Amino acid sequence: MRKKIIAGNWKMNKNLSESINLVSEIKKNLPENLNADVLVCPPFTSLETVHSMIKDTPVKLGAQNMYFEDSGAFTGEISANMLKSVGCEFVILGHSERRHIFGESDEMINKKIKQAVKNGLNPVFCVGETLNERENGRAFEVIEDQITKGLTGISEDEFSNVVIAYEPVWAIGTGKTASPEQAQEIHKFIRELISKMYSTSSAENVRILYGGSVKPNNAASLLNENDIDGALVGGACLQAESFVQIIEAAG
Ligand code: PGA
Questions:
Q1: Residue 72 alpha carbon to ligand 1 centre in Å
Q2: Which residues contact residue 196 at a Cβ distance below 8 angstroms, ignoring those fewer than 6 apart?
Q3: 233 lines ligand 1 (CB under 6 A)
Q4: 249 lines ligand 1 (CB under 6 A)
Q5: 58 lines ligand 1 (CB under 6 A)
Q6: Model confidence over 83-95: pLDDT tens digits?
Q7: pTM of the shown model
C-alpha cells in the first residue's frame, strides 16, 4: 500500500511570523491517527524556524526549489546541501510556475533532480500540460516528454526517492480542478510509463500526487482514485483549517 502524501506548497506567501502562526495551527489541529505523510514547503526564509517547530511531529519539511550546482558564484540561489542543513527532506522541482514564469527547461529540471537525489533529498517532481496542450489532444505526449526528460540518467535506485506530482497548468490557482476521472487517467498513464522506464515494482511504489485547486470539498473524491497517492496543495494550504481538512480527507 502506498502511503498518501499531503503536501502544502506555500509559494511566495507567509513571512516569518505568519509562518510560525500557520505551523502552530496545523500542529494543534493535526489528526491523531495520521494515515498520510504531511509535508509543508514554506519559503526559504522560514525553513529553519519551521523545522524547529515540527521536528518532534510527523510533519516533514520541503523546499520549493533549489539550484543544481554544489556551491559557488550563483547569486540568489540555494543548494541541496543548504536545504539539508536546515532540515529539508523534500524539494519541489519543476513546478509549472518555475517552468513558465522563470523559464526552467526540462534539462535544467533534470539536473536539479539529479542533484537532489545525489544529496539525499526527495524531489517532488512536477509535470503538467497547459490548457492549450490539453485542448489539442497533446496532454499524454507532453507528460511523457516531461517525465522522460526530467528523469534522464536517474537510476532505478535513485528513482525510489522521487515523488511525482501531476499538476495540470490550467487547474493551478484557477479554481478549476481536473475531475477525478481526468486526473486518474493521467496518473495511470504516468504509472504505466514508469513501469516501462524502470520496472513494475517501481511503478507500484512511486507516489503520484495530484495538484491544481485541491480544496476540502474535492480532496476526498480525487484521493479515492486508485492511482492518486496524495495532493500538492497551493491556495488551500495557507489556512490551517482547510489544509487539515485535506489531510483528514486522505485518512
Ligand atoms: P493551487 O496550487 O492549489 O493553488 O491550485 C497548487 C500548486 O501549484 O502546487
A1: 32
A2: none
A3: yes
A4: no
A5: no
A6: 999 999 999 999 9
A7: 0.97
